[in-house]
Amino acid sequence: MLRPPGRFDVVFFDVALPDGDGLQLAATAQSLGIPAVSVTPTAVMSEASRRAGCVAHLCKPIEADAVDAILRELSDAGRSASASSPDWRERYAS
What we know:
Largest sheet: 3 strands, parallel
Low-confidence stretches: 82-94
Radius of gyration: 12 Å
Order of helices and strands: EHEHEHH
CATH superfamily: Response regulator
CATH class: Alpha Beta
CATH architecture: 3-Layer(aba) Sandwich
């Protein structure tokens, strides 16, 4: 189910934002109940990203299949659990 206009269902962001702190963005999104997906040049999600509330990770260059897989997983999880549930976040933190 999509959020009302002006709201986001998921946020994909580069952890190394040129004019900001990507981890703070993730923490803010998580506090609003919006799943955050980190994007970095590394192959694994950092512990800092996990602590900030990221539910998934993408490695650059981003492949469409990887984005599709994350969106499908988040959609399936949204049907079976609340996005604000700690169990829901833990499912995607590994």
